[in-house]
Amino acid sequence: MALNYFKRYRMELDLAGRDLTWAKIPKGYRFLPWHSSLLDAHAEAKFLSFREEIDANVFPCFNDLAGCRRLMAEISRKPGFLPEATWLAVAVGEDGKPVETCGTVQGVRDRFGLGAIQNLGITPPHRGRGLGTVLLFRALSGFWQVGLRRVYLEVTADNLGAVRLYRRHGFHVMKTLFKAAEAACS
């Protein structure tokens, strides 16, 4: 079994004194707060966001919808799961009703009382429209709402778009980690 090592950053943000006013929602989109009935929609958004990205090599569950559903179910059952920091982005039709999932983020309180952002992803056709920023700010506001003042996340260093997003909004690299993953069979 061959292993690949992926460079990842642990990035952190102090929420104290930050303007957490929700970013402007682009026209044609809605953001839905967590509800258990949305578990499958979160899983679909996660799958469509990560399946063809480097993180699918780091976390094999992103390679199939069933794996994303299991992951979403596990996250939502964690003792520290925060519905307030968990959001779904959807594209809406002319009538304002959801027609397509296009982004997801989950938040948990870790065992040390810090907020942890999990799997912020935007599906490829919807990138570059500010949806990631809106999801990030919704999650950060949720952490603040429940009294958490420090938030972290892990991101694969080669995911340049995500690293830029987090840096642009004040996250700093605190640690570099290496995640081992089995190499894909040829």
Give structural notes.
It is a single chain. The chain is α+β, with helices and mostly antiparallel strands. The protein has a single domain, classed as Aminopeptidase. It is 28% helix and 33% strand. The protein has five helices and seven strands; from the N terminus they run E-E-H-H-H-E-E-E-H-E-H-E. It has helices at residues 39-50, 55-58, 65-77, 131-145, 160-168, and strands at residues 3-14, 29-33, 87-92, 98-109, 115-122, 150-156, 172-182. Strands 2-3-4-5-6-1-7 form a seven-stranded mixed sheet. Helix 4 links the parallel strand 5 (115-122) and strand 6 (150-156). Helix 1 crosses helix 3 (65-77). The chain is globular. The two termini are 12 Å apart. 35% of the residues are buried. The mean pLDDT is 92.
Instruction: Classify the helix fraction into a percent range.
Output: 25-40%
Q: Which CATH C-level class is it?
A: Alpha Beta
| Second rung of CATH, namely the architecture | 3-Layer(aba) Sandwich
If you consult CATH, what is the topology?
A: Aminopeptidase
Extended strand count: 7
Helix and strand pattern: EEHHHEEEHEHE
